[in-house]
Amino acid sequence: MWTNQSENIIETIRMIQEENLDIRTITMGISLLDCADSDIDRSCEKIYNKITTKAKDLVAVAKEIEGEYGIPIINQRITVTPISMLVSVSGGNPVKYAKTLDAAAKAVGASFIGGYSALCQKGMTPGDKALIESIPEALATTDIVCSSVNIGSTKAGINMDAVRMMGEVVVKTAELTKDNQCFGAAKLVVFCNAVEDNPFMAGGFHGVSEPDVVINTGVSGPGVVKEAVRSAGPHATMDEIAEIIKKTAFKVTRMGQLVGTEAARRLNVPFGIVDLSLAPTPAIGDSVARILEEIGIETCGGPGTTAALAMLNDAVKKGGVMASSSVGGLSGAFIPVSEDEGMIAAAESGVLTLEKLEAMTAVCSVGLDMIIIPGGTTAETISAIIADEAAIGMINTKTTACRLIPAIGRAAGEKLVFGGLLGEGPVMPVGKGSAEVMIHRGGRIPSPMNALKN
Amino acid sequence: MKAVITVVGKDRPGILAFVSGKCAAASINIVDVTQKVLQDLFTMIMIVEIPEDLRIPDVAASFGEDGKKEGLQIQVMQEDIFNAMHTI
């Protein structure tokens, strides 16, 4: 007898083997607030000890679950309290913290550690300022540390002094790593409305309202969604497609919830959230752009892309919310360029442009992600792109971000190759005209009307 | 502990005997078997009870390797994952 259960089992195995379904990351969030010390060396020592104690079994447990359930778990990562808070207590050179995080994460076998971060959407403490200024050196002298800075929010508005600084930081980070494909800038995210429980990198950090230690998971599954849309055929209506995506997202999220709660139980820490983002990789069949094309856009970035993406992003959320009571993080569709085979092809063909990507970020789960821009782009222009992106997030009460990589010494049409999950991509042209005067005004864009909800 | 064994390969006599023989040798109790031949592709799903002293990853590795020699693709996975994904 071939039962419904048999069909379900075959479906799950097909999703894993042929459609690249996997758990993208199990991320352990660790609070470092109890490591703060007025002596920076003492502070670093406490951090190293806490991370290597709490996360010592993280990788082993992930491998164990992978073996038992037969589901690939690609990354084991760590997020920590924004380091600028510890810098505020200890003073000293913040790069010491970056090196400590790098060493501790490597000691436990994690693939990335995030939290070399500052939250300065309204104003900057001396600790925030020192940390931001140290980012280029920190990212150039470490391997797996990721950095993020929150420069705006719906509640606070946009800190334009921080925006100006971040343009310079992005350029300097790329310059210091120019012999290594400007890789430093790929580990740096500038946020508006950053979330505190994001398990994905490079923007993950462990928020101050989080527990001492927590396990969050990020699932993936663009290939599964694309295949589901394809099997519906070209005559299904958009609401039928939305329904199919919802059901698929449900199944994928259930798996993330199962693996996350199981990992948390085995590590004896509370389970936090499942982030049900569709996270692409450069592998064929693991692309968000190809889902949009399957829906019926000839090339991603062409007219209709924003509408298709809005439907996709919303349907993914709806399916996920039904599947888990602990949905969090960014949850939606990521649209990184260099990490998505279909996006890379669309950018190379010239159909997908920076301006179209900006429009797409108004309806996707995050923002301008892994976009390679010409090396000669000025810091002010990068700041202006950051400000545009933050404005979309601020007004729409959503997370937006910029992960821009200036390709030092390269012009539009050339490319950078990062390898691995970060992929490769063409240098994309940036719009003309200068925003120098606005960027040098500094100050703050006041919080919008829709912040006044009380 | 309940697990699901799935077997896929080109149909020929002796596949079921081969897999159930391996189960018997490892004291794995077979609870349910469903199988189907699509064109000439053999597909089988077994629900089994794995004894406490065995670990699923070890069983999966052993079945996977021996299956490969026979031209079969064999997966062993904990049952929970299927229940979680397909039921509310």
Walkthrough of the structure:
The complex is a heterodimer of chains A (454) and B (88). Chain A has 454 residues and is α/β, with parallel strands linked by helices. Chain A folds into two domains: 25-192, Alpha-Beta Barrel (Anaerobic Ribonucleotide-triphosphate Reductase Large Chain); 218-440, Anaerobic Ribonucleotide-triphosphate Reductase Large Chain (Alpha-Beta Barrel), CATH 3.20.70.20. Helices cover 45% and strands 17% of the residues of chain A. In chain A, strand 4 (145-153) and strand 5 form a beta hairpin. Chain B has one domain (2-86): ACT domain (Alpha-Beta Plaits, 2-Layer Sandwich). Chain B has a four-stranded antiparallel beta sheet, with helices on both faces. Chain B is globular, with a radius of gyration of 13 Å. The chains are: A alpha/beta (454), B alpha+beta (88). Chains A and B meet through helix 1, helix 3 and helix 9 of A and helix 2, strand 4 and helix 3 of B.
Features:
heterodimer, A: Anaerobic Ribonucleotide-triphosphate Reductase Large Chain, eleven-stranded mixed beta sheet, 13 strands, 17% strand, globular, B: 88 residues, Alpha-Beta Plaits, four-stranded antiparallel beta sheet, 4 strands, 40% strand
CATH architecture of the largest domain in chain A: Alpha-Beta Barrel
Output the structural class of chain A: alpha/beta
Strand content of chain B: 35-45%
Largest sheet: number of strands, sense, barrel closure of chain B = 4 strands, antiparallel
Largest sheet of chain A: 11 strands, mixed
